[in-house]
Amino acid sequence: MVTVMKILEIIVSPLVALIVGIFFLGLFRKMMARIQWRYGPPLIQPVIDLVRLFNQRGFSHGAVFDLGIILSLAGALVLVLFIPIGGMCPLANSGGLLVILYVMLFAPIGIALSGGEGANPNISIGISRKLILTLSYEVPFIFIILSLMSYYQTISIVEIVKAQAHYHWSLFSPLFLSGVAYFMILPAMLGIRPFDMASAPQEISSGIDVEYGGKYLAFSQIEHALSLFIVIALFVNLFLGGGNLPVFLLKMLAVFVCGVFIHASFPRFRIEQATKYLWFWPTIISFISLIVIQLIR
Amino acid sequence: MDRNQIKKWLESPGKMGHKYSLWAVYFCTGCGIIEIPPVITSRWDAERFGVLPAPSPRQANLFLITGYVSVKTLKAIIKTYEQMPEPKYTVGFGSCPINGGMYWDSYNTIKHLDKYIPIDGWIAGCMPRPEAIFIAVTHLWTLIDKGMAKGYVKYRENYGRYRENQEKALGKLEWPRLFPIKDENE
Amino acid sequence: MRELELYFGPQHMGMVGNFSITLKVEGDRILQAISNPGYLHRGFEKLMEYRTWIQNFPIVCRMNVVEPDSMEMIYAMGVEKLAGLEVPERAHYLRSVYLELARVGSHLFGLWAYSNMLGFDTVAQWAMYHRDLVLDLFEELTGGRVYHIYIWPGGVRRDFPKGFKDKIVSALHSIGGCVPDYNNTFFENRLFYDRAKGIGKISQKEAMELGAAGQVLRATGMKYDIRKIQPYAAYDKVDWEVPIREEGDAYSRILVIRDEMIESVHMIFKLLDVMPEGPVYHRIPNPFKWTIPRGDAYVRIESSRGELGLYLVSDGGDKPYRAHFRTPSYPHGLIILERLLKGASVADVGNIMISLYVVAPEIDR
Amino acid sequence: MNKEFKQELESIFRDITVNITDDVTPVIAAAKPQILAILRFLKDKGYGHLAMISCVDWLKEAQFELVYLVSAYLKGDNEEPGQEKITILLKTRIDRDNAELPTAIPVFENAEPYEREIHELFGIHFTGHPRLLPLFLEREYKIPPFRKDFDSREYVKEVFDKIPFVEDKE
Predict the structure, then answer these.
(1) Does residue B18 lie in a domain region?
(2) pLDDT tens, A52-73?
(3) Per-residue pLDDT band at D170 (split at 50, 70, 90)
(4) How far, in Å, CA of B67 to CA of B117, rounded?
(5) Staple partner for B30: which of A220, B68, C56, D48, CB 3.0–4.6 Å?
(6) pLDDT digits over C105-131, tens only?
(7) Chain A positions in Cβ-Cβ contact with residue B39 (cut-off 8 Å)
(8) Do C125 and A36 touch, CB atoms closer than 8 A?
(9) Do B31 and C359 touch, CB atoms closer than 8 A?
(10) How many whole angstroms separate alpha carbon B139 and alpha carbon B133?
């Protein structure tokens, strides 16, 4: 019985992630439109776009071009399995945060592999920006994860979520500073403004996506939706105390809406400004938090 | 969404997807581009109809040719058009691509755009109002529905002649042929 | 790192207008930039030689789609100077109000392009909405949203309709009411400062050497404005200031544009207050037989992007013998842009280009 | 533009005519070899803004007329007030058959695109110009298109109108 439930969870949790991620994409566009005094597209517009993209021929630039995008999509799908989604946590007991740290690098590397085959200079600039950005937010991210692990004395997310039950959210614990730092790097992890320089349409023609058409772009969009889900879900799990499925999704929605407002009210950084920012405030705050946690424990 | 729509969606999702998700290539070919910003921003908001400017021709399926086409632009237009994945739709915006418009005697603008690439629809006028773009979009919906927006098929089938016309206007083209040219006598 | 060739435009989201820059880049840094115009070359000046003096009006305004009105104005001024036509007093005021409205519209378009370039979608959409309010005024006045052909040799085509004055005032008030919003979200935003400060910096000496005019020069601290230096229309009838800044970078250029917009609105209000009554045009001879005596003339005005000049030659016939426009984007887009892009980052190409206010059809003509 | 300046010009450069019809656009007509010297002189006198270089094709006289439009920027310590109002038209005529001129880039850097344009549209060669590459045109024209003997309408008929429409093969 347990095994069947496990298998069911393995099937269901990526589906939930996919649906929520694509819903977020639609909500994103609708909310942006409303902020900009527009009516906006229907909520299901991303689905229509995906249907259209799957029905359009895409150009391939070779085997690595195909493999890279599949690798990044697979990385995102695998990552979903390691994240507890409102009590559902198919693989959450095996590896926990350490695995997440590793697998999170799959998506940028996959896209880098795929884009390298595309031979468009815009892609190479986009990839270099994406990798530099990843490098920039990984530093505070590791500090945050370290302080979490040392505070709760575990590497399992499930344990962390359990410890936060009954409103003992880590955001309102000594981990407060870590939570703030995570929130500061959240736009960079989501790739929204002011950190969307890797896919800036006005600068490098959407960078890494520039050669994707048809189903490749569709895969890229799905990967984007999944990563949107993963980053927010991780934040909710680590700092907002998880919860059962509806509560969990509501918390995600709240975080997401904050992200949209940030996206709507900022221009984008240059890449060196982004690195400077990410290596300054979030890093300092998360480092202080790490020291505080070490002193407490 | 009424029942008819759902039926259409189930019958031919590809067609309906193309209808409601027209991503236009962002290419300012002529002065018509001045009416595109109002169309995609808050006053007219083309995103309601799923029309969105796409940053790269690979991602797009609608090509709005906005205004007169000079010889140098024609080259860029052909390159862009050939980069777009099929199915793709083209709409000529303004009088100038139709027959030269007020530049009928200019030595550097081409007069009939449909001699060089296939066009699915025209918007006449100089300058057409933004509403005209929506009429064109809804008209294009009808054409897609009826399977009449077949410009890309025409291009593939008559590629030899199109290429010949292009080379007449531009001189030798440096990029390879997109399709193998069929024998004219067949 | 590998040296790559990157084509910025003509098919590019950051490119406003059909223009292309070939960049030699190393990573994110530009080694060399080559402007590549000509995508919009229609040979206007040649076409004008085939058309009569009056027939040229619809053609001239197509030369610059962002602000067609200054093109009409300068051609009308050229023809008036060659033919020795007088313009009634009220027409001068109407022309000034009309040109300042066009300047506001054009600057709002520039604001759209610039903020869109930086990823400031929200501000961009507001600016475009407000530009449409100005276009609505033009539509009521002339019947056209974009191309108006309102200015005519010997005056303007028609007087303001009844109640039009109030409509101008209310439209400008509703734009002006949003200036604090623009300031909060855009002009005083720290990120705008970070992105634009020190980018595309040009010294006054270099700007003068390269033939700059307009905002590019005014942002380096020179009050060079043809409206003050050589007043035409009714610009000497009211008091107004030339906004300047000292730094000469993209940031100061954009702020000069904002200040100019505000100054224009104030100027319109003042002009509307002191506008005299009277006829709005002098009759011109039968346009089909209208010949202009042999001679040449150079006239210049301040368009929204800088000094706009026209060298007009007549050989005594019914058509211009030669017309040559000195458009402000020409030195800005072909020389200064190439200079400023050298050593800049790829992220700043559009930033620099739009802050120089380069309008492609003006270069190509 | 005052009388003294006219006299000064005429005393330094021989064989030039200075024609002051109105206050703002004095016309200087000079021969081809003197152009650069006059431009440099004007620049030293404060006329540091080359507004544009224009060209007129006088077909009947078989000559090109090059027009350099030079005006002044504002200065803090303005020696001659009102100087910025003036745009000097410096004209020179060259033969149509042997259309060649020295480039003005050593004096005014922004002459570069103007000369490039005139080279392309009128076929005038500027000696010493670093890059006389095509600027606007994609096609090659036998006669440069802005010359008066190039008939645009005839050209359109011959080239563009002769390209056939593509019919469907049904």
Answers:
(1) yes
(2) 888 888 777 777 778 888 888 8
(3) very low
(4) 15
(5) B68
(6) 889 888 888 888 888 888 888 888 888
(7) none
(8) yes
(9) no
(10) 10
Q: In which residue are the tokens 């300046």 written?
A: D5
* Calpha distance A242→A233 (Å, rounded): 8
User: Residue B23 and residue D55: Cα distance in Å, rounded?
Assistant: 45
CATH number at residue B75: 3.40.50.12280
Cis peptide before D33 (omega within 30 of 0): no
Chain Cα centroid distance, residue C10: 21
Give percent of chain C with pLDDT exceeding 90.
0
**Which DSSP string corresponds to C132-176?**
HHHHHHHHHHHS-SS----EETTEESSPPPTTHHHHHHHHHHHHH
pLDDT in tens, C49-107: 888 888 888 888 888 888 888 888 888 888 888 888 888 888 888 888 888 988 898 89
Q: Which domains does chain C have, with CATH numbers?
A: 42-363 (1.10.645.10)
State which H helix or E strand residue B9 sits in.
helix B3-11
Residue A38 has pLDDT above 70, yes or no: yes
Q: What whole-number distance in Å separates Cα of residue A134 and Cα of residue B102?
A: 53
Give how far D100 is from chain B: nearest CA, Å: 25
User: Which one of A32, A197, A205 has the shortest CB-CB distance to C121?
Assistant: A32
Q: Picking from A105-119, C68-82, D51-65, D103-117, which range would have the lowest pLDDT averaged per residue?
A: A105-119
Q: Name chain A contacts of C10, Cβ cutoff 8 Å.
A: none
Q: Kindly state whether B57 is in contact with chain C, defined as any CB-CB distance less than 8 angstroms.
A: yes
The verdict on A270 touching C (C-beta cutoff 8 Å) is yes
Q: What are phi and psi of A174, to 5 degrees?
A: -55, -15
Cβ neighbourhood burial of C242 (10 Å; 0-12, 13-18, 19+):
middle
What is the distance between the alpha carbons of residues B172 and A88, in angstroms, rounded to a whole number?
63
Number of structural domains in chain B:
1
Which of D138, D141, D160 is closest, CB to CB, to B72? D138
Across the interface, whether the CB atoms of B21 and A49 are under 8 A apart is answered yes
Residue with more model confidence, D56 or A208: D56
**DSSP codes of every residue in D108-135:** -TTHHHHHHHHHHHH--EEET-S----S
Which tokens hold the place of A133?
A: 């950005």
Measured distance CA(B82)–CA(B63) in Å, rounded: 11
Which residues constitute the domain of residue B17? 8-170
| Stretch A167-173: mean pLDDT | 72
Contacts of D164 in chain B (CB under 8 A): 115, 161, 165
Q: Could you tell me how many helices (H) and strands (E) chain A has, helices first?
A: 13, 0
How many C-D residue pairs are in contact by the CB < 8 A criterion?
Answer: 88
Are the Cβ atoms of B170 and D159 closer than 8 angstroms? Answer: no
What pLDDT, in 10s, does the model give residues A277-296?
Answer: 888 888 888 888 888 888 87
Provide the b/e sequence for B3-31 (b: ≥16 CB within 10 Å).
Answer: eeeeeebeebeebbbbbbbbbbbbbbbbb
Q: State pLDDT tens for residues C320-353.
A: 888 888 888 888 888 888 888 888 887 788 888 8
Residues of D with CB under 8 A from a CB of B: 136-141, 145, 150, 152-153, 155-156, 159-161, 163-169
CA–CA distance, A261 with A39 (Å, rounded to integer)? 17
How many CA atoms does the CB half-sphere of B179 hold within 13 Å?
17
Whether A265 and chain C come into contact, CB under 8 Å, resolves to yes
B2 in any annotated domain: no
From the centroid of its chain, how far is CA A125? 21
pLDDT confidence bin for C289, thresholds 50/70/90: confident
Beta-carbon separation of A264 and C117 below 8 A: no
Distance from CA of C87 to the nearest CA of B (A): 29
Asked, for residue B184, whether it belongs to a domain, the answer is: no
